[in-house]
Amino acid sequence: MLKKLRGVVGEKDVLTKKTDLTAYRDSVHLSGPPPSAVVFPKNTAEVSEVLKILSHYGVPVIARGAGTNLCGDTLSQGVTVILEMAKMDRIWEVNILDRYIAVEPGVSNMAVQKALEPHGYFFAPDPASFGVATIGGNIGENAGGMRCVKYGVTTDNVIGLEMVLSDGQVILSHGPVQAGAGYDLTGLMHGSEGTFGVITKAWLKIIKLPEEVKTLVAVFPTLEDAVTTVSQIMGRGMIPSALEIIDHLAIQALEETMPLGYPLDAEAVLLIEVDGFAGTLDGQVQRIVSICNESKASEIRVAKTEKERQTLWLGRREALNCFVSKRPTYAQEDVAVPRTRLPEMLNIIKQIGGKYALVIASVCHAGDGNFHPTIIYDDHDEEETKRAHLGFSEMMEHAIELGGTITGEHGVGIEKLKGMNLLFSREELSFMWRLKLALDPKKILNPGKVIPENISQMPTERTEQISGTLSEDFRRDQYAQELEIAKIGGIHFDQETRKAYSLNDHQPWCVIRPESVEQIATMVRLAHRYDIKIVPWGKGTKVSLGTYGKPYDVIAELSNLNQVIEIDGENLTATVEAGVELNVFQEMLHQKGYMLPVNPLEKGSPTLGGIVAANSTGSLRLKYGTLKNLVLGLEVVTADGKNIHYGGKMIKNVAGYDVRKLFVGSWGTLGIITKITVKIFPLPGKALHRTYVSENYQAFIDFIFSVQQKDLALTSFDLAVHDQKHYVNLGISGQAESVDRQLKMLNELVNKEVALWEEDEDPDYIPGRAFYDKYIPPDGDNKAVLKSSLRFSDLPGWMEKVLRFRHRGKVSLYGDGASGLLYAAFSGDKKDLADFITEMGADFRKSFVFGTHTLEADPGICIWEGNKPKDFAGLRLKEMLDPKKIFSPDRTLGGLAI
């Protein structure tokens, strides 16, 4: 095996000497046995060949970056090969116009920042180890940092990935475009700790450096006062770039080591930072100071110079360093709770310290409820070490009791495996394990991490099912009888009801409207037993898109799951059942001063479950991200009838695999979503949209490029071409000062070829909806709709190609310009359409037939990322998680099976 590995990477890039291997046995403050060998690949091809060899011999492999992980994620356990990514450290492309940087996994976070700084941009994630931590490691851990409250964690800032599976197969997920078809492999890789695949390239979202930054610090007599201040700031529509709390013990240690003038009797210090356009922050700072005063701050300092600002940050950065220097050893915990439960959790930590005679200090990412209680102790004292471990175990238990998680950003590794059994049920862990087996069937990628041994070593569970040779009528009759015995209500066999739920000219055998999650679980469990096929149904606004390769038996209509369970304004979250209609939910939010930032294109009133299953976000994704970023928690009934949940009310959560990303955009093919927790936002201080129009195509293109290059903080950037006119709709929202500044910047771009068509204040904050209602042609006029994901720089070529169809029939186009998600609606001769769409698929490979009326979606018409259905990695997930194809059987979008 070693000979073959050397044949791939070269003699010098395979280490086997004991002295060389010793350096790879440590992971910050944890250590384990040295690996058997260390291999240094230099490119994707070498990674692929190395994994093929290791897969053949069944040898475990761990991809390693800088080794800064805190939970033993890269520690060897037995015979193991380390795949050291240090030589894959190239920055391939800095693309300012398209807002990304493409890098290999061995590039450090700091190197990315340095590459972007001359252009005036940055990469948002900023873990404490950013000076050495690699991008591959940031993704594997889903790293966070102090800027997450405004800019999100790593998964919110990665556009696409190239990865290699354990068998050597190279997979491209999204690449440089922001939307994809099929399951979200990019999202799944985040926080997977190298157990799914090896990242070989990443396309990272980049953000314009703010023109101005303001930093202030407030001192509070209690932790409750500090946390209340955080909720008040965010509840009034201000989202600072950082909200950090330092507790009493950390303050004392800081003042003893490097006096910064903090009162020694202060219970909490809150560091606040806001950023934005120059000249727009003073009013925001004044409002924050007023809130701090209302919340009993005893002292407030606003940095007047960059030096003062750095001094304020010095206290946050060095507080724990000063604290841990007091004893020989320290251990840092990483739990997260809903932000409003922080005071309770911090008081519990005080009690744990007293109970076990431990000294514990904490710093908190207060804006997202993630905090790091740190114990200092003597690891040579066996009794004290035992007490420290007991204290950590209790912290995890209490975090779970408060609706939190065992790890917000550090990961599970080996250190928190026991905590996984506290947080998740056996069924939930088993589902995650099947995810692992789908992508790594030989279990060679970083074994012994994330999933506890009691799950990974158990035999595959067999579910009761009848013989597949029984007739369809018999199976249906048995299914109906058992539904009746189980007292499942809302079952409809009548022709009139069934006709209303027809898909692809096929009527269901019956329609079921379950009244509870328990009824859904029962009907699915019985469907698995009797091989009954189910299509989940909300309001039917997207269920007809694509094709179904096999007939389905049952429509599971979720209109009875229509409860808004909670709107938590203080925590800025809401929990709803999947059948809640979006319009109804938005109205409830608006009445309370909040919003869910989505504006799907479909007509009517889709359900929350429907838009999540389709990742139907709309054009507000430019500012707020997609539903993949907005969904914090899900409950789902899986193909074996088990009810599982993942996530909750936390912004940061890296406990286990990110099952949310799997189900958002899964189109009802893996399970039935029953409950959803989402991030909500205060209605902005000011919101409007401007529509510009031009009859000159080139002037239109020049204008949208000038807007992109102006670096505005737009909420939406919609485009439409209809009836020979070219429209641009720009949504702007936020603090009034920022909105006004951007309007002035836009005024500089208008010329005689591009006119301001209309400007509307948007008190209900649904920008873009009226625009699409006005300029998108009715569905009945279209014979095919093509959906493409593009880089911004590719828009002119795509538009020119689409508009050429005017010579053969009618065409209009519309979509989200900045995110590159464009639609072209065609009507004309069927053969002309098929030929033209085939050409589009060849020229723009990230395209597919999104909806058809008279044109069949031929699997050969369009290509998505060049993957044929037979080798698309998502099929492995479908086969493992729904082996009998119970849900939405053989559903395809534009020829791509999902």
UniProtKB/TrEMBL annotation:
<dbReference type="InterPro" id="IPR016169">
    <property type="entry name" value="FAD-bd_PCMH_sub2"/>
</dbReference>
<protein>
    <recommendedName>
        <fullName>FAD-binding PCMH-type domain-containing protein</fullName>
    </recommendedName>
</protein>
<keyword id="KW-0274">FAD</keyword>
<dbReference type="Pfam" id="PF02913">
    <property type="entry name" value="FAD-oxidase_C"/>
</dbReference>
<dbReference type="Pfam" id="PF01565">
    <property type="entry name" value="FAD_binding_4"/>
</dbReference>
<dbReference type="InterPro" id="IPR016166">
    <property type="entry name" value="FAD-bd_PCMH"/>
</dbReference>
<dbReference type="InterPro" id="IPR016164">
    <property type="entry name" value="FAD-linked_Oxase-like_C"/>
</dbReference>
<keyword id="KW-0560">Oxidoreductase</keyword>
<dbReference type="InterPro" id="IPR016171">
    <property type="entry name" value="Vanillyl_alc_oxidase_C-sub2"/>
</dbReference>
<keyword id="KW-0285">Flavoprotein</keyword>
<comment type="similarity">
    <text>Belongs to the FAD-binding oxidoreductase/transferase type 4 family.</text>
</comment>
<feature type="domain" description="FAD-binding PCMH-type">
    <location>
        <begin position="504"/>
        <end position="683"/>
    </location>
</feature>
<dbReference type="InterPro" id="IPR051914">
    <property type="entry name" value="FAD-linked_OxidoTrans_Type4"/>
</dbReference>
<dbReference type="GO" id="GO:0071949">
    <property type="term" value="F:FAD binding"/>
</dbReference>
<feature type="domain" description="FAD-binding PCMH-type">
    <location>
        <begin position="31"/>
        <end position="209"/>
    </location>
</feature>
<dbReference type="InterPro" id="IPR036318">
    <property type="entry name" value="FAD-bd_PCMH-like_sf"/>
</dbReference>
<dbReference type="GO" id="GO:0016491">
    <property type="term" value="F:oxidoreductase activity"/>
</dbReference>
<dbReference type="InterPro" id="IPR006094">
    <property type="entry name" value="Oxid_FAD_bind_N"/>
</dbReference>
<dbReference type="InterPro" id="IPR004113">
    <property type="entry name" value="FAD-bd_oxidored_4_C"/>
</dbReference>
